Amino acid sequence: MESPKLFMLLLGCTPPGRYTEQHDVFFTIGNSLKDLKEEIVAFWPEANGKIHIDAWREVTEVDGYQVKVVSKEDKSTADKLFFLNLGGYKEGEFDEPHYKVLVIADEKAVAIKKAKETVFYKHSGFEGAVSHIDDKYGVDVDDAFEIEDILSAVVKQNYKLQISPGTNIPKDEIHLGYLILSKL
Length: 184
Known about the structure:
Elements: E1 5-13, E2 22-30, H1 37-43, E3 52-58, E4 61-62, E5 65-71, E6 80-87, E7 98-105, H2 108-115, H3 119-123, E8 132-133, E9 145-146, H4 147-150, H5 153-158, E10 159-165, E11 175-180
Antiparallel strand pairs: 1-2, 1-3, 3-11, 4-5, 5-10, 6-7, 6-8, 6-9
């Protein structure tokens, strides 16, 4: 039997009444991408099932730490996995590029500090349009999401994440491209 994995997906759709494709990040635990179809559709009901995956990865490594899915009964670890959505600007471009960051830290304040050290954060802004962690202008500790907090209730009943320092852990493969759910 396969071990459950933590999946990070970038979902896209054009909800009714919108003119451009919208995106959101979805985290869940499962054995394979194919097994996640129902959860994906339930996550974004406004898409009316017309949803696709633009990027995905199995999260097993972040900054030299191993990320494993374990039973809810397993021993807890002090470190946690955080997701931050950084937003920035480039002068003359009519857009707000985003950079999605996974960070290992023991608390949100430390995760935010680490995110502010990324190249994107330092170079995606200019006077009058500074880079920021989305949902706030400026930085606030509430801008980071601990992954275990944003998993579905059903997933949280059965699993948790175990974070441990590692050596020579292969980097996660990031899969890119337009993938409709019927092709899973």
